[in-house]
Design brief:
heterodimer; A: mainly alpha; B: mainly alpha; two-stranded antiparallel sheet; 2 helices; 2 strands
């Protein structure tokens, strides 16, 4: 044991040890930087996802049917993104719910009214019937 | 309101008419979001999303 300690004591005073320690320190620092860069990149991507989602959500609230269609189509694409996790999916559900509920309500109304066929009619972008 | 001799209603939920195309896009987004989090989508929304009905 004493011999080992003496060898270690001698080795830590050599330039080889200093060089090894410097390389290890550099590797640790490099790993830290890499983790930081990855975290930053992920945060940026997530932020970009939310910017696009905000734009799409605004469109879904537009008075124009065509704009709302584009908004929901973009939300569909965003929902498929790798950056859409559970919380983002919850937001998409919340955004689509009023429209789907309204459409279901229209179908039910159409069912009560023999003359209307909401589910199958073609509609112009501004909401006017063809 | 009457339109082309038929009764046209506006949604009490949103106060506006929802076209089938708009509802289909909304249904597609909903199906994709539900698939992502392993949630079951109501059958009528799935049908609407696929446009098979």
């Amino acid at each position: 044991m004493r011999a080992v300690l003496e060898w270690l004591d001698g080795w830590v005073r050599t330039p080889g040890f200093a060089g090894t320690a410097a390389v290890v320190a550099a590797l640790i620092a490099l790993r830290g930087v890499r983790v930081n860069v990855d975290t930053q990149r992920e945060a940026t991507r997530k932020e970009q996802w939310w910017e696009r989602a905000r734009w799409a959500l605004d469109l879904t609230l537009s008075e124009s049917t065509q704009d709302r269609e584009v908004g929901f189509a973009v939300l569909d694409a965003l929902a498929d993104s790798e950056w859409a996790k559970e919380h983002e999916s919850d937001v998409i559900e919340a955004a689509t719910e009023p429209t789907l509920a309204a459409y279901q309500e229209q179908l039910e109304d159409a069912g009560a009214d023999d003359g209307a066929q909401w589910g199958s009619e073609e509609v112009e972008p501004d909401g006017e019937e063809r | 309101m009457a339109k082309n001799g038929r009764t046209v209603s506006r949604s009490a939920t949103t106060g506006r008419f929802v076209s089938k195309r708009e509802a289909t896009y909304a249904a597609r987004a909903r199906v994709t979001a539900d698939e992502k989090r392993g949630k079951t989508t109501p059958a009528w929304i799935k049908t609407l999303a696929t446009g098979t009905k």
